[in-house]
């Protein structure tokens, strides 16, 4: 591989730039490749409505058996409440949904206060189931519709609260709340697990233990309420796997490119130091050094190799014979050939590799 790169004449600077670009790409690709979390959501809207009538006990004052919603009612004349509760939910796309629902009446007793705060002023509350729980499973559903008619024995719950207050000699305000309790989960191909079903609670509220009362429907705006369930999950997309592989490969290649750039730079540095040394010796002693194209013949002679060029100069000063300089690629030989002996000093790029 090194030889191929050298043939392509890829220099250390080019290799280093390529390594940096590859490293940047590799880091980002790896980060995004392992960041497989994605946000998915499903949108739906719902609306709850409540209509009611207040049926009266037999009396000689009212000609009708019931009074419509939105009136003031005399507590002693109330027989029962006839309540129609309707709930509609619409999904933006077909889903599978498992849900259950039931209806509950909740009595609460609270301390008389002009500034109630959350449940701090509440003495007591208790739930009374009005219906059995109904379980449903729908496939590819676009909507859910629930309707229920309830007959609420107002006097029963009024008496319960009255007994509670008299038992503990409390001066308290009481409320009866009639509501639907809905639990469910949405199953969709978009999600790796079911998500909970949220809904807008609408309920009927009416005071207890008062001489006259006014009922109110709480939570109903007369318009659809929008919901958006958002879920974070892992993505199985093949693209993330490809990004991870490419990112890791890019990082590995960038490290190899950096190593290659360092090796080439080191080689060029060693070769440059070698060339500079040879040129310095030839230039400084051009009067006694003769460059030759063929290696001096030393066969049959006793060849003595010296370790320093100075030692070769000492020989020259003694016998005054020229110094032949023969360059063979990465090695240069300086040789003095005598009658029976030859003295040689060699310098090569390998010498500079050892001198780190």
Describe the protein in words.
This protein is of the alpha+beta class and 356 residues long. It has 6 helices and 17 strands. It has helices at residues 2-7, 12-34, 154-167, 238-284, 309-319, 349-354, and strands spanning 37-56, 66-68, 72-74, 78-111, 122-129, 134-152, 172-187, 195-196, 203-208, 212-214, 216-218, 225-234, 289-292, 302-305, 323-328, 331-337, 341-348. The strands form 3 sheets. Strands 1, 2, 4, 5, 6, 7, 8, 9, 11 and 12 form a 10-stranded antiparallel β-sheet that branches. A 5-stranded mixed β-sheet has the order 13-15-16-17-14. The protein is rod-shaped, with a radius of gyration of 49 Å.
**Helix count, per DSSP?**
6
Determine the strand fraction and express it as a percent band.
35-45%
Uncertain segments: 1-8
Structural class: alpha+beta
Amount of helix = 25-40%
Query: Any idea what the radius of gyration is?
Result: 49 Å
What is the straight-line distance between the termini? 25 Å
Categorize the overall geometry.
rod-shaped
Order of helices and strands: HHEEEEEEHEEEEEEHEEHEEEH
Q: How many strands?
A: 17
Q: How is the main sheet built?
A: 10 strands, antiparallel
């Amino acid at each position: 591989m090194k030889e191929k790169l050298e043939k392509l004449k890829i220099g250390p600077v080019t290799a280093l730039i390529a390594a940096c670009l590859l490293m940047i790409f590799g880091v980002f690709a790896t980060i995004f490749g392992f960041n497989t979390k994605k946000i998915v959501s499903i949108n739906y809207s719902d609306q709850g409505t409540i209509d009611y009538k207040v049926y009266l006990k037999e009396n000689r004052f009212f000609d009708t058996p019931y009074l419509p919603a939105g009136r003031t009612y005399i507590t002693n004349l109330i027989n029962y409440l006839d309540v129609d509760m309707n709930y509609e939910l619409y999904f933006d796309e077909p889903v599978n949904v498992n849900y259950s629902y039931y209806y509950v009446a909740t009595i609460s007793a609270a301390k008389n206060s002009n500034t109630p705060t959350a449940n701090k002023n509440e003495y007591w509350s208790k739930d009374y189931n009005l219906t059995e729980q109904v379980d449903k499973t729908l496939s590819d559903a676009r909507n859910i519709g629930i309707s229920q008619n309830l007959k609420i024995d107002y006097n029963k719950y009024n008496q319960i609260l009255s007994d509670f207050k008299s038992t503990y000699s409390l001066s308290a305000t009481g409320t009866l709340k009639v509501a639907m309790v809905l639990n469910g989960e949405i199953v969709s191909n978009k999600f790796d697990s079911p998500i909970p079903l949220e809904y807008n609670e609408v309920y009927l509220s009416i005071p207890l233990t008062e001489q006259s009362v006014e009922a109110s429907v709480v939570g109903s705006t007369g318009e659809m309420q929008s919901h958006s369930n958002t879920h974070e999950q892992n993505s199985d997309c093949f693209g993330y796997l490809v990004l991870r592989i490419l990112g890791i490969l890019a990082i590995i290649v960038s490290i190899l490119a950096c190593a290659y750039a360092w090796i080439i730079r080191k080689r060029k540095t060693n070769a440059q130091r070698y060339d500079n040394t040879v040129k310095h010796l030839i230039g400084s002693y051009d009067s006694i050094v003769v460059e030759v194209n063929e290696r001096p013949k030393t066969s049959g002679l006793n060849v003595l190799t010296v370790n320093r060029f100075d030692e070769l100069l000492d020989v020259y000063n003694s016998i005054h014979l020229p110094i032949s300089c023969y360059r063979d690629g990465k090695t240069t030989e300086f040789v003095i050939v005598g009658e029976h002996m030859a003295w040689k000093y060699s310098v090569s790029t390998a010498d500079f590799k050892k001198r780190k």
